[in-house]
Specification:
104 residues; mainly beta; Immunoglobulin-like; 6-stranded antiparallel beta sheet; 4-stranded antiparallel beta sheet; 1 helix; 12 strands; disordered N terminus
Length: 104
């Protein structure tokens, strides 16, 4: 089983935002896996462990548009993207996360 795990492609990628985010503003996130953009809508997104986020930490739609809350959170939030929800892949789901500091 260890040999099988070592033969697996890396599951982690990169996610980045188009620019800084201020309270109430939106920014497009981009997901790269193996150096290529995973384009299109329908990816799995969450903010601070909440699928789709909420009004406290901000929201993210299935196309990766993050909208910051109207009041900036005191601490940075974590934006996570994956090709599938956690626990649903037989092997590993390509995924990435990034920390976002929302400006007031």
């Amino acid at each position: 089983m260890i040999a099988l795990l070592l033969a697996c492609a890396p599951c982690d990628g990169e996610v980045s935002l188009a620019g800084p985010v201020s309270a109430g503003d939106s920014s497009q996130a981009t997901f790269l896996w193996n150096g290529e953009e995973v384009a299109g809508c329908g990816l799995y997104w969450e903010v601070d462990g909440i699928p789709g986020g909420d009004s406290t930490v901000g929201t993210v739609d299935t196309c990766g548009i993050y909208t910051a809350p109207d009041v900036a959170p005191a601490a940075p939030v974590r934006l996570l993207v994956a090709t599938d929800p956690p626990g649903t892949c037989a092997d590993c789901c390509p995924h990435a996360s990034v920390s976002i500091t929302v400006a007031p």
